[in-house]
TrEMBL record:
GO terms for molecular function: ATP binding; methionine-tRNA ligase activity. One of its GO terms (biological process) is methionyl-tRNA aminoacylation. Is required not only for elongation of protein synthesis but also for the initiation of all mRNA translation through initiator tRNA(fMet) aminoacylation. Residues 8-160, 161-369 form the Methionyl/Leucyl tRNA synthetase domain. Pfam families: Anticodon_3 (PF19303), tRNA-synt_1g (PF09334). Its EC number is 6.1.1.10. Belongs to the class-I aminoacyl-tRNA synthetase family. Keywords: Aminoacyl-tRNA synthetase, ATP-binding, Ligase, Nucleotide-binding, Protein biosynthesis. It comes from the Bacteria. This is Methionine--tRNA ligase.
Amino acid sequence: MSSNKNKYYITTPIYYVNDRPHIGHAYTTLVADVLARYYSLKLGEDKVFFLTGTDEHGDKVARSAKEAGLEPQAFTDQIAELYKQAWQNLNINYNYFIRTTDQDHVGAVQKIFNELKEAKTPKGNPAIYQADYQGLYCTGCEKFMTDKDLVDGKCPDHNREPEELSEKNWFFRLSDYTQILEEKIIKDEILILPEGRKNETLGLIKQGVSDFSISRESVKWGVEIPFDRSQKSYVWVDALSNYITAIGYPDDQVKFKAWWPADLHLMAQDILKFHAFYWPALLMALDLPLPKTEFIHGFFTIDGRKMSKTVGNVIKPDDLVKKYGADGTRYLLLSQFSFGFESDIKVELFDERYNSDLANGLGNLASRTANLIEKNDLPVKVELMEEKVENSLIENYNFNEALKEIREMMTEADQLIDQTKPWELVKSDIEQATKVLTEVAGRIVRLALRLRPFMPQTAGQLIDQFTAGKIVKGESLFPRIN
Ligand code: MSP
């Protein structure tokens, strides 16, 4: 299968429905949206496929449903809806929202299991086999733990003891893929970014990679293994498969081949291992090409602390949208720190930056410019020329730098107004005032063109406002917050 360079298939992790959408999920999804919008402008809308969704099976979800007094399906229906709503409020323009309880997905996962059953590893062994499993399982992580993963006998992420499990499971022979995986990662056949994460992955491979169980006997809420009805799919096999089932695997080969391999899987470091080992090895067993790039961004903390229900510092994207609007929230989340690194969100900076960069910055520039044009009835005309869309900062995942560049364009336009004082010029030299404000309006349009992937609504409004036959002030884009 040759890979089609002229398309862009981007995915986010599919989020667990035991949690409600918070700004951690929002951040990854927002970045995916910016990239998808950017490549839509660059390559054409029909050349981009942006996938997100929800991960709905497994014990963790079944338990949350029980706590909520609901059947798992009814529970997941509710939470999946919350994710869709949150993404709509943030103006996330995905092409498809997959739910792992979708019947199409479930059927496809079963076919994948059948294929795995027939598959051979590079060493000629059956890719999957049955064995007894005894071990410790953390339901919070949905993964088996060894003693070295524990701190004081407890899972450090969930602060509780894992459960003893003893059952017959199907295993995937990951150990047979170690060498090939290592080679492919070294050669950037799967490009793991940033560089540090690639080294971390190679380090983990060096420590040794063991086979992993791909089925569970005790789990009831999951995809039934077609050749062993006593077993359900391990949630991670079910979940990772979404990246191919969502684009038609295995039944719709035309659609599938049009999009696969993924150009980019986005995620944070918590799920690196699943994407850097398990997923490529499963794909090799299915004889499919590997994803081109995986970008692993950092986890952020809130005011120095891990975001958690217990600490009570969970920030919901909907609350930010209510206060700052969709574009305001998009700007604040993307401009605070370098994508890819662990960072800390300072909540008090949100108001400050909203006021300085958006209300007093961009909003004020647009309104003072339009106001001067309207009040003095100046014949300012800006032709909408398609600017070069290419933006290497975006292509290199340097989102806050890309926003900084736009802020600089804004500051320069502002300075031009301050220096030329068009409010005085109109009294003495209308022609010159028109010339200056035409230049400023042109700059606003160019800046808005750059801004489209980040703040689509604002950008669209600015472009319409300043390329209109008659430029009028209109409503304030970003009302000040006191
Ligand atoms: N269901 C699995 C993923 C399966 S993908 C085939 C899962 N779900 S999750 O709901 O826990 O989402 C984890 C992802 O959410 C992270 O990889 C990251 O993209 C995002 N984030 C969650 N909390 C975050 C932060 N505090 N900071 C940054 N991103 C965060 O794992």
